[in-house]
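> call design_seq(struct)
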């Protein structure tokens, strides 16, 4: 009673339902439901089937522990499901995923009772998101650690690659130390191993004449000369995440980028990078990015270095498994035993001595070795897309906003000054609107002079006094459509604007906003209407009478 799941690349994963601790009829029912999803239109990635399988094991263990467990789907009651739901922890990684994975499978069975279907169909609210982006210092430390490790590996591999090229072009005298090292590198590039004596056990002794020129028999002296290690591959993945905001599943299965010729004459390389979010199924989410290597710190430079660091591993894999198209390829330090079962050899994604991509366990091991709290990929990707790039990465804009931006403390903190600035801008714009005075070139002899402008209709203004006439203060004159401003007012109004600026520097900010901000905004509006040249000229024409008038006005000693 086993179900085979063939993924989009033709790899098969076998799920043995005989291991589930429930009755045979329940196993058969669950196997049928599971098999119905192991088709190209539903699950094209082993991630999807493993995700459900793991939670199905947990669910059946719960059923087996019941006093009277259901023997088949039709016996599954609403009460059993509710108890199972209440027993799950309300977390994103455990409870929520367990419930939604098992629920989706069970609802495919038409034999569920109406009560059970109603209970299982009830919405399962996602738990509150607790994952946050990294602080700048944390993120920089992670990226720096990855950069140091990968740069060291890239330098090591490219130096040995140059030596190999020189050997192949006959640059070294035969049997010299450089020639012997080149011969060892050539064997390593072709076979994945330096020249060794073949033994019946899993350990092959290196041919003695090469040990001295290699510097020893340790991995760093031998196969690491041309191949990345598991941890160095993770470091490369961390840098891809840090620079581009890609998630681990995308990086893990990243295809080899193709270089396209540039139309210019500067020789820069443009890489076409194909990104596929496999959790959604092959082809369901696919996009391409063009990344240009135009020198250090350009988007394509890391791609160039990744290609250089994996060139020998990818070539070896191509010989062993033609058509393999994976960017991240690394060499394992463990030589497969000749007598090892075929199934054991295929346990890891790879071929021969080589492995593909980055697993979650490898990412955790890298973090532990580098003394970080956890795998950097999930929080790192959130940091890049929410804090640095501030745009979606393999997500819709709605998912980016709702699941990432709105729930992230750093994004919330960064939004505060933006919102405040926007609000202040709106208020300032509103204050500009209330500038109602008419700007004229000459005075009208019929107008009534006031401290800040001339009044064209004192008896019929928008701010009437209970006793008749105008009830507004002189500071409100510029808000009145009856006010007239002409050149004779420029110097005193420019001085008033200057005085309010001085008050702003010595007063409490909140108090200044309350007392003087509206008047200042109207003067700013007038300054904009007149222009800087006229305003500067007006400031140079301020008289003692202007200063005395404005002093009285600001100190409240001047009555209308």
């Amino acid at each position: 009673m086993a179900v085979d799941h063939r993924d989009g690349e033709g790899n098969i994963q076998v799920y043995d339902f005989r291991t589930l601790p429930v009755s045979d009829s329940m196993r058969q029912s669950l196997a049928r439901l599971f098999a119905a999803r192991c088709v190209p239109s539903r699950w094209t990635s082993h991630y999807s089937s493993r995700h459900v399988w793991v939670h199905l094991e947990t669910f059946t263990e719960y059923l087996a522990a019941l006093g009277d467990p259901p023997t088949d789907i039709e016996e599954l009651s609403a009460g059993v499901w509710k108890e199972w739901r209440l027993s799950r922890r309300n977390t994103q990684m455990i409870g929520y995923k367990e419930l939604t994975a098992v629920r989706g499978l069970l609802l495919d069975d038409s034999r569920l009772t109406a009560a059970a279907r109603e209970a299982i169909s009830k919405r399962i609210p996602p738990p509150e998101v607790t994952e946050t982006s990294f602080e700048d210092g944390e993120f920089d430390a992670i990226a720096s650690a990855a950069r140091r490790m990968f740069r060291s590996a890239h330098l090591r591999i490219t130096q040995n690659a140059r030596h190999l090229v020189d050997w192949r072009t006959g640059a070294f005298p035969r049997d010299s130390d450089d020639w012997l090292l080149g011969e060892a590198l050539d064997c390593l590039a072709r076979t994945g191993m330096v020249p060794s004596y073949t033994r019946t056990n899993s350990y092959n002794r290196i041919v003695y004449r090469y040990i001295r020129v290699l510097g020893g028999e340790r991995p760093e002296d031998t196969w690491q000369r041309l191949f990345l290690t598991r941890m160095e591959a993770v470091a490369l993945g961390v840098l891809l995440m840090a620079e581009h905001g890609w998630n681990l599943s995308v990086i893990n299965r990243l295809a080899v980028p193709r270089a396209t010729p540039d139309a210019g004459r500067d020789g820069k390389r443009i890489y076409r990078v194909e990104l596929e979010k496999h959790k959604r199924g092959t082809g369901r989410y696919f996009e391409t990015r063009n990344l240009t290597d135009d020198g250090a710190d350009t988007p394509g430079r890391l791609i160039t270095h990744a290609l250089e660091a994996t060139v020998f591993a990818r070539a070896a894999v191509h010989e062993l498994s033609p058509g393999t198209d994976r960017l991240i390829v690394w060499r394992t330090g463990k030589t497969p035993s000749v007598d090892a079962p075929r199934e054991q050899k295929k346990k890891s994604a790879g071929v021969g001595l080589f492995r593909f991509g980055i697993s979650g366990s490898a990412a955790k091991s890298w973090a532990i070795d580098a003394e970080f709290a956890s795998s950097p990929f999930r929080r790192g990707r959130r940091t890049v897309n929410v804090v640095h790039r501030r745009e979606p990465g393999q997500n819709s804009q709605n998912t980016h906003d709702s699941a990432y931006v709105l729930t992230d403390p750093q994004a919330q903190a960064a939004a505060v000054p933006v919102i405040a600035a926007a609000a202040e801008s709106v208020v300032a714009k509103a204050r500009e609107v209330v500038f109602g005075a008419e700007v004229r070139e000459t005075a009208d002899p019929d107008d009534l002079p006031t401290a800040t402008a001339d009044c064209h209709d004192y008896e019929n203004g928008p701010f009437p006094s209970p006793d008749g006439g105008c009830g507004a203060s002189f500071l409100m004159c510029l808000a009145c459509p009856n006010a007239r401003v002409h050149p004779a007012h420029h110097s005193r109004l420019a001085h008033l604007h200057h005085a309010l600026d001085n008050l702003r520097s010595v007063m409490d900010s909140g108090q200044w906003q309350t007392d003087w901000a509206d008047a200042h905004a109207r003067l700013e509006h007038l300054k904009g209407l007149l222009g800087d040249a006229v305003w500067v000229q007006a400031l140079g024409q301020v008289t003692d009478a202007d200063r005395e008038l404005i002093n009285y006005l600001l100190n409240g000693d001047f009555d209308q």
